[in-house]
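[Q] Does anyone have a clean structure-token version of this?
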Amino acid sequence: MAVGTAWTTLAERQGARAWLARHGVAVDEPAPLLAVRLGARELATRSYPAYGVLSGVVWAFALVPLIPVLARFLVFAVVCTAFPLLQWRRVWRADRAAARLVPPGARPSLRVAAGQVGWWYLGAVATTFAGGVVLCAVFAANPAGWAAALVIGAASMTPVLGRALRAPVIAEDEASLAVDAALRAYDVRAFATPFAFQFFAWIDLSTSWPPPPARFVPAIGYFVLVGAVIVGAPRAARRAGLPPGHYGTVTS
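[A] Here you go.
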């Protein structure tokens, strides 16, 4: 059953049009199902520039020597996780509404969903947290604070990544099926990026500056490795693109 009509706001339709344009698809009026899903994501991420400024301020706070070490870890971890998770809940509610517009689809296999999410991204998550756990256990000057921050980070990513890997398909045709696959990669990169969590290592180093080489060298290696894998994730996602299809109407 195709979606013939659906109530969408002007902001959602404009947001969906902007999202599609960035992915190489030009439409004047996006399909209703896509307007619901893509519009919510565009609106949810518009406040990210302000969030980036706030994160920078909190990062500077985390390096102030007079601040208790545990507070540095916890405040930075909460700021880096709470805002994206709150924005993702807005997207999650929109997807629940979209799922009521079409018959329920089957879940893709875990392997297929992982490929849609992106192996580079999954590698970035594994490298960030596995490397962080090793550094925290072996080289940390403040293992309790670092461990608590890692737990907060992992907890914030679990619902986003879990839904990207296990959510049923929400699609009515080939175009919306392609968008559904693309959104699995988009959502984790927008709302569950592991980028900030590598800086827990720097907070730990800053508490006893200058750190001895035995702690500094592994941390630098960790930064370089995680940074390289994280940079590869969006590059791989951009190469995927969207195939030709009916994503909406075009006024001639």
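[Q] Thanks! Anything notable?
[A] The chain has ten helices and two strands.
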